[in-house]
Amino acid sequence: RNLLDRDTFSKSDPICVLYTQAIGNKEWREFGRTEVIDNTLNPDFVRKFIMDYFFEERENLRFDFYDVDSKSPNLSKHDFLGQMFCTLGEIVGSQGSRLEKPIVGIPGKKCGTVIVTAEELGCCRDSVLMQFCANKLDKKDFFGKSDPFLVFHRSNEDGSFTICHKTEVVKNTLNPVWQAFKISVRALCNGDYDRTIKVEVYDWDRDGSHDFIGEFTTSYRELSRGQSQFNVYEVINPKKKGKKKKYVNSGTVTLLSFLIETEVSFLDYIKGGTQINFTVAIDFTASNGNPSQPTSLHYMNPYQLNAYGMALRAVGEIIQDYDSDKMFPALGFGARLPPDGRVSHEFALNGNPQNPYCHGIDGVMEAYYRSLKSVQLYGPTNFAPVINHVARYAASVKDGSQYFVLLIITDGVISDMAQTKESIVNASKLPMSIIIVGVGPAEFDAMEELDGDVVRISSRGRFAERDIVQFVPFRDYVDRSGNHVLSMARLAKDVLAEIPEQFLSYMRVRGIKPSPAPPPYTPPIHVLQTQI
Question: Can you cite an annotated GO cellular component (predicted)?
Fold first, then answer.
């Protein structure tokens, strides 16, 4: 909207060029170009850019605008109209996944604005729930009847088949009814409704040498007709068919039901306005070492971030795109506070217990450095108070409009294991996730236990409803060559990768559906007339 006019006799002929940035070397690479729209300062570009989206990665984007003056593909031959920088997360995290930002880059001139919208390509987000039964299958066992099961294969581009589902075995019957099963459309036919699906029927044998009863083929489109005469299949054994003239079939398989379920995605909720609230808690215990000493994990090095600062920035810079007000509560634990030296396990880094919010990740960093100067590192290392602090907020909004992520950065050895487990088991019922980054050389066995990936965490006989803790040791990401940018991108990727699934598991268990996205932007009518 309102691009600069660079042509003398008519309006500009704009094109938009999109660049993406490599994580490691920060080099901008051209991703693609839109079409040129002649003679307008308010172009609505049609050509879309299709790119991969990962919640846990920061994808920097740059949109450059040019007024095209000739047929030359060389951009330096055309007039530069300005540019806009943003991240992919910023676009999808905006309301309705629609971002409007000013175009910059030409000093002293207003360059107009750009409106970018993102939509998730949902071609293959459906799953199907199907149930089959069979009649009069061939008897394969000498003593009893057969023990039949079905094996489903999808066909590949090259004509080969890939197994995609096995039913359970139904014992001792020639007329089995199998349990309904759920499979994604992508797994069943790669999203291609007319692709062949091959189904084989076997008789189960204990020694693994299952006997082949017969097979049939179908497709998603055929199955989607549901229970009908079209979905009764003859099971054919090609060997028998070749040998016996009178062979009819080896039984029939019937589709009993076919239900399509559209899986909602993380982005459906974000688009519908769910906010992710980010809270950070920092370990101020004495085991970190005196902050004025270079050996301290809290050392305030004027030239580079310490481990706490790096972990905070790596995770925070990605999450902040999903939080509209960019205000983050920042807490500390394990320190003695001025003026009276009382020990606190949940104090506000900005010194204001009534309002612990800091503006943006920069605000959190500033409050962290200020705290280091004013509090005395002490102990013990108690996690439960900060977990309960966030849980109190999460417990007050269980309608799916908000989700809470707590980042705990710690040097390790935890003093209140029993209370922390209890807090996590309670929090697993709430819309929250906990990320723990362990800094320094300590043994982090206790943290691995809290992570719950291997054994689900429990407290006093109660198990966590869902896995909500993700732990990583910072030392696994320290790059020997000193390239912190790449190593921190890997750290963020590993701690954030589980969040969308944890988020969805909460919404699913609670039966919360995404809110409808706000209506898409429609340009004002008079703008359209200039283009006709």
Answer: plasma membrane
